[in-house]
């Protein structure tokens, strides 16, 4: 192995091993997995939770049975019509909660008894059924066959020609894109902060002096970023994989919605985004010497990322083709968060993707150079917080 | 051979090192003494490449130190530091590998040194669970585990119990006998005197005296102890070649300006004229006294330490 890279590999291996074996990683991953599972279960229940209703009919209103059953599917209601021996028994059943409503009396103007107020969908079904009965009676009275009218109406309807046909998988793509953006945000924030904590821990425990008498600062920084980046990637893959599996099992997701390409682009953008943010976090961490001070230097970064994320996420859900989200996804600090989502949505032209990629790589290179310099200048300075000016100026003098 | 040649370093407006030069030969145990802030730690940090010098050069065997040759140096920083949550054995192997040892060598060395320093049964424990004394032993093992050709130790004896001091002394002598240049700083001057082949005294960022303890003694003003019970006060003050006298050790300490035979004869004769002379001998000042004299005779006290740049 190349002499300069062996220490980098050793450092990366130590970071990886100490985090993956750590309780925080395992517990954290399990907790997120659990939340993901609960979320999927709730979504699945809501998705499969088609409305059902039981309606009793009594007296002449029994004639409504057919029209009710025919009207229910158009309102997305699964309706069970239960004939009641008489009105009193039906009303008792409503009060007992066995029936959602009792329809009694004249089929055209029936009396509907409910517990407190009728379900909106059920009310529409009953209205549909009564109008159908009224219409059929009117037509039949004038010698017209209602069935003939129904057949004629069924034949009618426009033929829509759309210039840009809607993607039948748009929902899935949006879901994938948003999940990808969220996972990227989560990983970058979590593992970026871990890089900073690691840097501060080495400064606080003074071990950095021993390490830096063996390796150069850039080797330590690179090894740290690679090691923790790999941990983040592992978690990203575990969570992403579990998420896809759960979604697949719940039937929310079917293959072919650019699944593979989305996963690949999320991973590629994660690597780029992590290199970018981890360097910033490491440089920030090197400015302080105590864990208590870490938050003060990290907040400006995490808040910026959070704001960008919230704004971008909203734009992505409301107007994924808009100018605002296009601009945000082209700005290097936010490209890694939103470009993969826009790619998944299929709204990012190739030119924009290439441009964002090139901009991010350039930006990352600049950040690596600046951050590496700040890190090298301040990582051995203990005591009070090092100001950015000092960290920057020291190298020039 | 480790040579520090004319190294200078400033921290802002504070001059930490001002043309520091010293040489540690192979098979030599070198004691580095000086007040806090005199520049000992800064010198060692520069030698290890942890700090960059403004001027001057550090050479190992005649060649300027670079990243590769620095890995041959075993280093114990003044600010002790290890990964608190890493197990002792894993940590030592890691540090040895960082200095270029193979995984197998690193394992063998970690086992050997933990055994030698009496912490073999703590190999699997996290460093933070060890007592301070045992953490110090791990720290020494960390300096030794890469089988270094040179040892640079900053205050290796501070915070050690007497048994650990013995082990540390033994190990330093061993490395010296194996032909390694060994340099350490200490405020415990009796220990330095007992252990070191040569001593360098630093003041305000420069080496102001360097040599064996004997050489330093010869260079300092020679003193005689004369015990003559009947001698009146000031009996030797006016003698030729005498710089001064003071009462001490139940007699008179005579500081000589000119340690020639004529002066010695004159002092002895003067003493005998006062009555019986019970004792007449050359005083061998301990290193502590030489140190005080050297530091005092070379000017104003050292400047206060620069923040974040402990010397």
From TrEMBL, chain A:
Domain of life: Bacteria
Topology with respect to the bilayer: Multi-pass membrane protein
Domain ABC-2 type transporter transmembrane: 24-371
Transmembrane segments: 174-200, 221-247, 267-288, 297-316, 322-341, 353-376
Localization in the cell: Membrane
Keyword Transmembrane assigned: yes
Annotated InterPro entries: ABC2_TM
Keywords, sorted A to Z: Membrane, Transmembrane, Transmembrane helix
Name recorded for this polypeptide: ABC transporter permease
Organism: Actinomycetospora chibensis
UniProtKB/TrEMBL annotation, chain B:
Keyword Transferase annotated: no
Keyword ATP-binding: yes
Keywords: ATP-binding, Nucleotide-binding, Transport
Full protein name: ABC transporter ATP-binding protein
Residue intervals of the ABC transporter domain: 2-229
SMART domains to which the protein is assigned, alphabetical: AAA
Family: Belongs to the ABC transporter superfamily.
Gene3D superfamilies for this protein: P-loop containing nucleotide triphosphate hydrolases
Residues in the signal sequence: none
Pfam families: ABC_tran, DrrA1-3_C
GO molecular-function term, one example from the UniProt record: ATP binding
